[in-house]
Amino acid sequence: MLLKARSAGGLRRTPGTAPRPRRPFAGGIGAAPSPGEVDAHPWRSAPPRPVPERARAPAGVPLSPLIRGRSPGGGASPAGSPERWGADYQLARRAPRIMRPDDANVAGNVHGGTILKMIEEAGAIISTRHCNSQNGERCVAALARVERTDFLSPMCIGEVAHVSAEITYTSKHSVEVQVNVMSENILTGTKKLTNKATLWYVPLSLKNVDKVLEVPPVVYSRQEQEEEGRKRYEAQKLERMETKWRNGDIVQPVPNPEPNTVSYSQSSLIHLVGPSDCTLHGFVHGGVTMKLMDEVAGIVAARHCKTNIVTASVDAINFHDKIRKGCVITISGRMTFTSNKSMEIEVLVDADPVVDNSQKRYRAASAFFTYVSLSQEGKSLPVPQLVPETEDEKKRFEEGKGRYLQMKAKRQGQAEPQP
């Protein structure tokens, strides 16, 4: 036998045999990964190394819309790695994750909230990494807004989710991140795009989470990209301001409501924010909040239809304020509009800092979710028409109808063949 005995220092080898090469330890604290290990674990950053001022991408390496020659921190990724060459902080991929039964509903469709949580985790990692890419005060990126997210195709139990994220624009105090989600059937190898989302983050100081820091700039390959990003930034900033007029709305229960009314399906969930819901700095992950919002919206949709329902899209999610550990949050959902085959649900998140008497209950987040009803074969079913009763309900119905017609016209315009 080659191995004769075990000593205190390890295995003893037979004299005359060559020593077995030792693998570098990659899992310990402070262990520097090799270039190959960086590629195997895409969320790790390679150690910064100087690059020539006129560095160019290796032949055959595709560039992202942002220049890949130098990272914001001045370093470069391992040479020869197509996905990691250049700006480590601008492009990253999340480790694949297989979808399990606790991620899905009774019909086997993965909850929209589960996918939203994965999207937010990817965005938080890449934006926090970028915001700490230069020497200065350390910070953590907090989610401020999620643009409209369409669920292009349902994901099922047993499929593998692949999430990739890229920084596409930075303003002085915010970061825009584009996240794509692919599902893979590991039996057939088929892959399909299920989600594309745009998220906005702001860097908060670790010393004072109420202080917003400046964002390191990114370098664009074309001037038009910066101009387009600035337009998106201004548009989302304006829309965020417009949503604050609803912050006084409260969903009140109604005794003995009639079927198909707003009161009949409206639902609320009360959740005590614990350490597992929060970052290391004591406020709630945006993905946790979005998952709870999707759960409440799903309950509203199921009560209204009494069938299998799935998330079709999420309108912009606005995070108006941080939610701290120890708060009691109330997530309320109510039906606002129904078309023939879809329903819009408004979800409001209120935070009550019960351990802090100096602060009153406040609106933390709001969004509109769109759901569709499916048969056992996965085909869309007609949706029972909503019956608005009060003047406020009728007003919200007309507003929802306007959003529905606007998005329908936009989809039809995109579907038309280009000349």
Number of helices: 6
- The count of β-strands is 14
Q: Report the average pLDDT across residues.
A: 79
Shape: globular
Helical fraction: 10-25%
Distance between the termini: 75 Å
Radius of gyration: 25 Å
Strand order of the largest sheet: 4-8-5-10-14-11
Determine the oligomeric state from the structure: single chain
Contiguous uncertain segments of 5+ residues:
1-14, 20-88
The fraction of residues in strands falls at: 25-35%
**Largest beta-sheet characterization:** 6 strands, antiparallel, barrel
Brief summary:
The chain is α+β, with helices and mostly antiparallel strands. 23% of the residues lie in helices and 27% in strands. It is globular and about 60 Å long.
Structure commentary:
This protein is α+β, with helices and mostly antiparallel strands and 419 residues long. The protein has six helices and 14 strands. It has a six-stranded antiparallel barrel. Helix 2 (112-131) packs antiparallel against helix 5. The longest helix is centred in the C-terminal third of the chain and has 25 residues, at 391-415. It is globular, with a radius of gyration of 25 Å. The termini are far apart. Mean pLDDT is 79; it is low at 1-14 and 20-88.
Name the features.
6 helices; 27% strand; two-stranded antiparallel ribbon; alpha+beta; six-stranded antiparallel barrel; 419 residues; globular; 14 strands
